[in-house]
Design goal:
This protein is α/β, with parallel strands linked by helices and 236 residues long. The protein folds into two domains: 22-75 and 213-235, no CATH class; 79-190, Ribonuclease H-like superfamily/Ribonuclease H (Nucleotidyltransferase, domain 5). It is 44% helix and 14% strand. It has eight helices and five strands, in the order αααβββαβαβααα. The chain has a five-stranded mixed β-sheet, with helices on both faces. The relative contact order is 0.16. Involved in the transposition of the insertion sequence. This is Transposase. Pfam families: DDE_Tnp_IS240.
Length: 236
């Protein structure tokens, strides 16, 4: 008696089961990550195109598909540079101040972000461990004068020069203002996960627009982000 061959199940798209097509979902997510819009703003813009979507649905799309876009884009990402600029900023979540660690290289690529309830060595170690997974190890790391950094850098990057002069960190402080502008309409944040998701999505958008991914490379720079998100959609 011949045995029936068992075929593995076909991979299921993450868009399966959604009422709206992937193009609409990705458009809403791209608008939200790129511009300083609220979820209600995106709802209104979609309504102008004849697409009736509740702002809560837009929120769910952003939270679900932003990490998938970041993961899908990872193989196309350029290695970071060898000079890193690191700092942390404050974001209020559920009425409490939390911390957002960020690193940018000398070419303006956002290397990584980490939202944390604490500003301590454990958070800094977790952030640098994740950042180092993206490729090249830096030869120089510039931070502010926070006392948690020297011990963590000596542990994880003993070969790198550590600079902590405040004026040396102007690059990341200027870049941080763009993220703060994106977060400003997000009043009443309830979960740290939302800060992490939006900050990572904003970093993805900034890096694509600056040419740090092999995505949308054959298009006009003004259309690069649209082309890149279109390329990423089938991979989700």
């Amino acid at each position: 008696m011949r045995r029936r061959r068992v075929h593995p199940p076909a991979p299921t798209s993450e868009f399966a089961g959604f009422r709206f097509p992937p193009e609409v979902i990705i458009l809403a997510v791209r608008w939200y990550l790129r511009f300083a819009l609220s979820y209600r703003d995106v709802e209104e813009l979609l309504a102008e195109r004849g697409i009736d979507v509740d702002h809560v649905t837009v929120y769910r799309w952003v939270q679900r598909f932003t990490p998938l876009l970041v993961d899908a884009a990872r193989p196309c990402r350029h290695s970071p540079g060898d000079r890193w600029f690191v700092d942390e900023t404050y974001v209020k979540v559920a009425g409490h101040w939390t911390y957002l660690y960020r690193a940018v290289d000398q070419h303006g690529q956002v290397i990584d972000v980490l939202a944390s309830t604490r500003r301590d060595q454990a958070a800094a170690r977790r952030f640098f461990t994740a950042a180092l997974s993206h490729g090249r190890r830096p030869i120089e790391v510039t931070t502010d004068k926070a006392p948690v950094y020297p011990r963590v850098l000596n542990e994880l990057l003993p070969e790198a020069h550590h600079a902590d002069a405040a004026r040396e960190n102007n690059r990341i402080e200027a870049d941080r203002s763009r993220l703060k502008a994106r977060l400003r309409p997000m009043r009443g944040l309830k979960q740290l996960r939302s800060v992490q998701t939006i900050s990572a999505g904003h970093a993805l958008v900034q890096n694509i627009r600056r040419g740090h991914y092999e995505l949308g490379t054959d298009t006009d720079p003004h259309a690069r982000l649209t082309a890149a998100f279109t390329e990423l959609t089938p991979a989700i």
